[in-house]
Amino acid sequence: MSSAIPEAKPLTPTQWMICFIAVIGFAFDIYELLMLPLIVRPALMELIGAAPGSPEFGMWVGRLFYIPAFFGGVFGLLGGWLTDRLGRRRVLTYSILLYAIGAFAAGFSTSVWMLLFFRILVFVGVCVEFVAAVAWLAELFPNPKQREKVLGYTQAFSSIGGFMVAMANGLAVTYALHLPALHLPDFLNFFGGTIGEANAPWRYTLISGLIPAIPLLIIRPFLPESPVWQKKKDAGTLKRPHIKELFATKNMRRTTIVTTIMFALAYGAAFGAIQHMPRIAPGLAEVQAQSQEAGEQATAKALSEGKPADVAQKAGGVAMRLKEQNIIASLTKFQEIGGLVGRVVLVLLLLKIVSRQRVIRMFIAPGLIVMPLVFAMALTSNLSLSYVGMFVIALLTVGQFSFWGNYLPRVYPVHLRGTGESFAANIGGRMIGTSFAWVTSTLATVAWMPGGTPTSKLAYTAAIIGFLVFLGGFIASWYLPEPPKEDLPE
């Protein structure tokens, strides 16, 4: 690329269309991932009949969080390689279709193994989509400031996706009983079994994951390939990507190792702490009191209508669960608004501050204090403080995710961009980082962990894990290489 900085030009209709598809991808990959914390509790209670806090329940929570992430990391790395070999557009579109169809099918799960299988498909699609979208957008805008803005603001829609899934879950909780009962589609009959709670809100929440496939199928024929990648391919100068190149030189080795570690620790904060909030919040006294009140009102109403006592009690139990899920959905909305603010703040900082080490530490350093305060104090004692705490900790954690979307394209050349990004994002973030969900779930069951109830033990465990991963990220940030120039490396 020329040493002169290209002029920032207004976006063309084609560029707007590409940004629109990237926005859909970014929004719905987080939408799909954040479904699990919202639905895992009611889904497991139906599919395996285990009580929250029991060893079997904890084991399956860990499996549903980590096994899909493991497969996502492996196939995501392959997807990054395919992005460099086959092009950004093709890989992006098929990855979105994969996770949309996987989420839809998961809503009809008749067993926990079926749910696990389709969550694996969802994770694979999500892991591939992020890498392809970032590479595509980065190569579309040669002007560095414009590129930072586009990458930053499109990634901000990831948090919009988190907000949307919280709203979708809230709508499902409110209206699922009024929707048609679900039946196993013919194309899923080979899984066997029957659907238990045919109007369960968690099922409709999963089914809503099909939404991103609709605009994609309409727009895909009009999408062009990355001009930078296509130019090299047409000229016959596009090199074959090899993973060993990520470690070929001292500088490349340091870049790959440090970014992978820091990506893993950022995901460790999300999966080891933040995503456990829906299982922690039900332990708050205020949540229990509000749920109990809703249950008593529903029971009394049913009895006043002349319904049998057992039917009235069942109605009360349903009302209690729905109230609890509504509060969790509300907390999740505050959390996702915080994440959105964090992504916007990240863009503003990148445009003002040259040092990338300094920018990332501005998110990590406060988290060393905020993380234990939110999980060890707010989420064990006060619902109102929990709203504030989840907003702040999401701001500090999610802002880091956008940082990597802007940083990684600047340190890998065209033929290695998808592979390099994929190694850090999928091996580091999705495979290693998400394993902290299993770590937290496991440690929360040990006898020496503080807390008198399963939810409080989980909260204290999340506080410890959250602090440790932020500490590790702070230390690693001092070794993060600064990108050598504003231009993308060829």
Quick synopsis:
Helix content is 74%, strand content 0%. With 490 residues, the chain is an all-alpha fold. Helix 1 (13-33) runs parallel beside helix 4 and helix 3 (55-86) packs antiparallel against helix 16 (414-433).
List its traits:
490 residues, 0% strand, globular
What does this structure look like?
This protein has helices spanning 13-33, 35-47, 55-86, 88-106, 112-140, 144-175, 201-207, 213-219, 227-235, 250-272, 277-280, 285-304, 309-352, 356-381, 383-407, 414-433, 435-443, 454-477. The model has no long low-confidence stretch (mean pLDDT 86). It contains 18 helices and no strands. The chain is mainly α and 490 residues long.
Secondary-structure map:
Elements: H1 13-33, H2 35-47, H3 55-86, H4 88-106, H5 112-140, H6 144-175, H7 201-207, H8 213-219, H9 227-235, H10 250-272, H11 277-280, H12 285-304, H13 309-352, H14 356-381, H15 383-407, H16 414-433, H17 435-443, H18 454-477
Average residue pLDDT: 86
- Low-pLDDT ranges: none
Number of strands: 0
The computed structural class is mainly alpha
| SSE run | HHHHHHHHHHHHHHHHHH
Total of DSSP H or I helical runs spanning 4+ residues: 18
Q: Radius of gyration in whole Å, from Cα?
A: 23 Å
Q: Roughly what fraction of the amino acids lie in strands?
A: under 5%
Q: What share of residues is helical?
A: over 70%
Shape: globular
Distance between the termini: 7 Å
**Major pleated sheet:** none
